[in-house]
Amino acid sequence: MHRSWSTEDMPDRQGRLAVVTGATGGIGYVTARELARAGAEVLVTGRDAGRARRAAERMAAEAPGVRVRPDLLDLADLSSVAGFAQRMEHAGRPVDLLVNNAGVMAIRHRETSKDGFELTFATNHLGHFALTGRLLPLLLAAREPRVVTVSASLARSPMAELSDPQSTHRYHPMAAYAKSKLAGVLFTLELQRRADAAGAALACVAVHPGTSMTGLQRHAPAVVRALARLALNRLIGQPVEQAALPVLYGATAPEAEPGGFYGPTGRFEARGAPGPVELPLLAGDAELARNLWETSERLTRVRYRWPQRDG
């Protein structure tokens, strides 16, 4: 069923508003452009206003007629997240799709965000937790709202455990990344459970893009980046255009089920057509997910406001 899925299989998105984080390059850029090509109006967000503007201009040149708008959003700065959400709330338009894509990886030494959190965890998880919560009223005002959170196959790694989510006691670049990506899956499943309990028609999906050379590798040494480019794009991985397909599948395919996890279905899930993939083992730990949720609420000071069920 999923062998030949491509952007041509995307349903029409006319009349829908999509927000894509980290849309200035890589998978986020392709995701935003293709959603716009399918008819959606897309907010192209990035932590640098100039880059966001140039990305939107480039999309408009590559796909004339698309509706894309740049906006400033730094996921590592909770005041930036709040400011973006306030602008969206002031506009008052329902948000049909939120793609939590922005991320950082392999920062060599432990750094902290403006708010004092470990930078990888802050960007990849806490910022998206806060953004989704602040946009929740606009999402629930849409007819068929969907939240897609981009994880990674590394979420299944033994490094991906959350006893020390901010790597306070011991920091390893890839372990910090793995933790943040497991957090993304746990967040997705807990968000779906809470939406279901509230009777909210919100579909929450986690995806992983397989293996590809994107801007995420920018913190690695130059020699490592060169070798990675060869291996990831030509030998075991796939170009970024294909790596974006699982994200687009999770964002638009009617068969992408709430609470599902989707990625490439080829060998080692490094490449191939998008489809259902196995969840990380720890994703089944509902208590771990609840604890992560409560920790995220405490750190971000964002509480989700669900509608009251009748009766």
Outline the structure in words.
The chain is of the alpha/beta class and 311 residues long. The chain has nine helices and eight strands. It has helices spanning 26-37, 49-62, 78-91, 119-140, 173-198, 222-235, 240-243, 245-252, 286-300, and strands spanning 17-20, 41-46, 67-72, 97-100, 146-150, 203-207, 261-264, 274-276. The chain has an eight-stranded mixed sheet with strand order 3-2-1-4-5-6-7-8, with helices on both faces. Helix 3 packs parallel to helix 4 (119-140) and helix 5 (173-198) crosses helix 9 (286-300). The protein starts with 16 loop residues before the first strand and ends in an 11-residue tail after the last helix. The model has no long low-confidence stretch (mean pLDDT 92).
List keywords for this structure.
311 residues, alpha/beta, 8-stranded mixed sheet, 9 helices, globular
Radius of gyration, CA atoms, in whole angstroms: 18 Å
**Principal-axis shape:** globular
What percentage of amino acids are in beta strands?
5-15%
Numbering strands along the chain, what is their spatial order in the largest sheet? 3-2-1-4-5-6-7-8
Query: Which consecutive residue ranges, at least 5 long each, have pLDDT under 50?
Result: none
Query: How much helix is in the residues?
Result: 40-55%
Q: Main sheet, how many strands, which sense, barrel? A: 8 strands, mixed
Mean pLDDT equals: 92
Span between termini = 41 Å
Query: What's the β-strand tally?
Result: 8
SSE run: EHEHEHEHEHEHHHEEH
**How many DSSP helices?**
9
Return the structural class: alpha/beta
